[in-house]
């Protein structure tokens, strides 16, 4: 049995051996990828090979892939006023779902007064009727809806969202960072105008991501300026080693995605069956389609920070559904948007699996949950409201 169990794959993943090897080889390529000599062309080839891998993974044209420093920058690049495509747009306002990642809720280059929020249902899925009403209330909009939520794993009905957005003359951005290579993604099937992905969620290095545009998207102007790199959409000498690692991780993840997803789905079922053996346990978005690796769970009276420490002492890494800022715990904005029971908000724990998670890992997690549940019951017995 291994000493530690890692169940925080949605936060970041271990570096795949293929990515590590690709990066090590890239460190020996000394040329600047913008140079035309042999050394420069060797560096450029590493970038273009990775660009092709990312494009193939989402059914896009390689020339439409723009490498960035990560998912956050990719989202900021995508959230650009004035985007247009196929006679739709230009986007004059931004509509985001209430459960988006903070990098999307920040609004990119849109003024705060031009940002509107679309609500979600208690299931964690976007309220399509409300979205249609918001779309009808003003000029063409850029709408940003994540493909799969990073906390609950709920998979959004993106093709239905796209139909509403495009009928209203808008443009659709899809944050696919958490869903990338956990489920099949095709930019044309989703009917997205631009989507964003990140390397470190799939076994690539931290600090590398990409924005992927659909054919014909116009107005995706650089926010980092000063050079002509990345088709003029992102200035600065590219992170050759990081991008090479990204490409290698994409190829490895794509090659095993179906097998990994099926195995994680079985482990998820084992995990959630065990969690439900204990009273007052709630698994969020369990009525919605979800990623095969993500479980957000809570129990009445549970305190997330106590649970995270408890799991850690048992040798298990998990994360809280609450965001900590300046030492103050705040309820998850995702669960608030879902109108979850207030008694559950501060106790949400995210358990996320990966390609080498095992049944033994699940069993250790369930044993730790049993201990926490027992302590919680004792706390209730002596009148403590939250433990």
Q: What does this 3D model show about the protein?
A:
The protein is of the alpha/beta class. It folds into two domains: 5-12 and 258-378, Aspartate Aminotransferase, domain 1 (Alpha-Beta Complex); 17-251, Type I PLP-dependent aspartate aminotransferase-like (Major domain) (Aspartate Aminotransferase, domain 2, 3-Layer(aba) Sandwich), CATH 3.40.640. It has twelve helices and 15 strands. The protein has helices spanning 17-26, 38-58, 71-78, 102-105, 128-136, 158-167, 187-190, 240-275, 304-313, 333-337, 342-345, 359-381, and strands at residues 5-6, 65-68, 93-97, 115-118, 141-144, 171-175, 194-198, 209-213, 281-283, 294-299, 316-317, 319-320, 323-325, 328-330, 349-352. The strands form four sheets. It has a seven-stranded mixed beta sheet with strand order 2-8-7-6-5-3-4, with helices on both faces. Strands 9-10-15-12 form a four-stranded antiparallel beta sheet. Helix 2 (38-58) packs parallel to helix 8 (240-275) and helix 8 (240-275) crosses helix 12 (359-381). The radius of gyration is 22 Å and the shape is globular. Mean pLDDT is 94; it is low at 323-327. Belongs to the class-V pyridoxal-phosphate-dependent aminotransferase family. NifS/IscS subfamily. Residues 5-364 form the Aminotransferase class V domain. Catalyzes the removal of elemental sulfur atoms from cysteine to produce alanine. Seems to participate in the biosynthesis of the nitrogenase metalloclusters by providing the inorganic sulfur required for the Fe-S core formation.
